[in-house]
Amino acid sequence: GAVVSQHPSWVICKSGTSVKIECRSLDFQATTMFWYRQFPKQSLMLMATSNEGSKATYEQGVEKDKFLINHASLTLSTLTVTSAHPEDSSFYICSARDETGRRGLSNQPQHFGDGTRLSIL
Amino acid sequence: GQQVMQIPQYQHVQEGEDFTTYCNSSTTLSNIQWYKQRPGGHPVFLIQLVKSGEVKKQKRLTFQFGEAKKNSSLHITATQTTDVGTYFCAGRQGGGTSYGKLTFGQGTILTVHP
Lengths: 121, 114
Hints:
- The complex is a heterodimer of chains A (about 120) and B (about 110).
- Chain A has about 120 residues and is an all-beta fold.
- Chain A contains no helices and eleven strands.
- Chain A is globular and about 40 Å long.
- In chain A, about 35% of the residues are buried.
- The mean pLDDT of chain A is about 90.
- With about 110 residues, chain B is mostly beta strands.
- In chain B, strand 6 (about 55-60) and strand 7 (about 60-65) form a beta hairpin.
- Chains A and B meet through strand 4, strand 5 and strand 10 of A and strand 4, strand 5, strand 9 and strand 10 of B.
């Protein structure tokens, strides 16, 4: 089945550090990937949609200069949390849909990575 | 914008009891998906409903999509301790772009006491 790999799993760093999170689709192509943030016991909040070869689409209230997204290939999207502060501590999860030779993309399930737990001291 | 409300927020049951979580959208959905997230894990896709009034079953799990395609439910018969986790519905609004943006409900945290 479709597998999404997310790295790293855990990050603990000092305030002011920039943190890069990678999301890879291992056995399928994904022109679109999604980045979510989840606080403890809360739902997944979509932060942005990552588009291969073009600019990401950010949700309302998400600072694009704070959360830099790059989607340089059909299998890799990265999220960089710039100058992270304690309030940025959260669980960040990416997802992707298997788009290989498929129609009706909107009906395809999203496959999630294992997530990255970010703790800013 | 689209809102997806899910209730209840928490549900505690004894093993063997049934469990139901409900999802309600402020707008008509083109499809709705259900995910399960175990404690400390990531969401795992369970099922997708597309058609109005659709009912699908997976062993002890029954999923329904309302006639108006604005609400959905997940029912678990005779819960087991392995059912523990958070169940999320996620709806995609009808029409618009086709890049598959989903809006997640708040989730229902299910605990099962043996």
